[in-house]
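Hi L., both proteins are below.
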Amino acid sequence: MINDEHLENYILEHIDEEGRHLKKVNRDTYVKLLRPRMCSGHLQGRILNMICQLVRPRYILELGTFSGYSALCMAESLADDPLAELHTIDIDDELEEFASSNFENSEYGDKIHLHIGDAIEIIPTIDRIFDVVFIDANKRIYSEYYDLVFDKVRKGGLIIADNTLWDGKVIQDPLPKDAQSVGILNFNDKIKNDDRVEKVILPLRDGMTLIRKK
């Protein structure tokens, strides 16, 4: 949501550095993959990392792997726990080799478990109670993801939903065939009215909602 390039550059120059491997992942994403803008990138990656460092999770679940950048950022918080795990799910099997390589070449690769397939089917098969869940997959069914993961999040745990301002489309009337905007709008209303959680929307990039389970 920061539209001033100079201000954005200033921010990036005054936060923790991206790191050599993450820089490579980001660069390769833009060179080799379609829709590279889906990559979390330096600023959001550091924010995800900071959130996880504060929560000190043992188990993290990510819906929407893409190139693996965000998973790598969150996995940094697991470094000191030999039992910690991050499970990440993506439906696109064409991304498997790319993401797997990025994980294997990282010092945190042994903590990351990549699942390829439909998250709706895979989530129930993962026998874990998660401390952090990051939702960044099919916008049409964010509400379904939320319902599916809710009981798998510990009390006091955190659900993070990306793209919840959806390029500003949340303040416009969606077109009849714009199922992604409708999905985001329905999700935002659902979270607003859920008294089981505390919530706040950060105007970061495309909007990121932090949801804390009471």
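That was the first. Here is the second:
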Amino acid sequence: MFLSLMSEVIKGLVFLALHVTGAGAFPRALSSKEEAELVKKCENGDTYAKNKLIEHNLRLVAHIVKKYYCGQVPQDDLISIGTIGLIKAVSSFRSDKGIRLATYASRCIENEILMCFRSLKKSANDVFISDPIDTDREGNALTLIDVISDNEDFVETIDTKIKLESLRKFIKELPVREQKILALRYGLYGYNEKTQHEVAKMLSISRSYVSRLEKKALSSLYEKFTRQ
């Protein structure tokens, strides 16, 4: 759905799609000199430098996820959460902190993951709005959603609709093949969501080529959102 695709783009999780390439190799680690140059550019608002710092530190996310993975939260979700921590780290890091980016990022990634676990613990005894709480005169189950008032956040709803319209416009600006791949991968325009293998078979191209085009399309959408 468009909401699913928008979430990928808005949160910056486009970079998550880059965390494994081909046979499972991560983008190489940056040298101290390369990292220092990119950090300086990032501090001056260079989006490309920021993206490179995130991409080349994704192996750090995977390493920390392995440390905390216990089956309570799906591994893919933990990687997404950890990637958000990495993005926050790169966005807020300053070279005058006196520590390496990896050290600072590790703390941010761990904090994001631990916040997730704390949130799960707090909500363990929560009552969901779909839980039955009583029955009506006919014996039908009543849920919380049946009896509470409508507290919809209209500002958030309008903001989401605006972003969705922007996303639809940006997708139409992509090359036709990239549009097709996104439509198939994310279930847009009435399609069912499909794996990269399924898309490759439908389009008679390799899975790796589908992956490259998908990453390129997501990167383009992310850039368009950051510039608007």
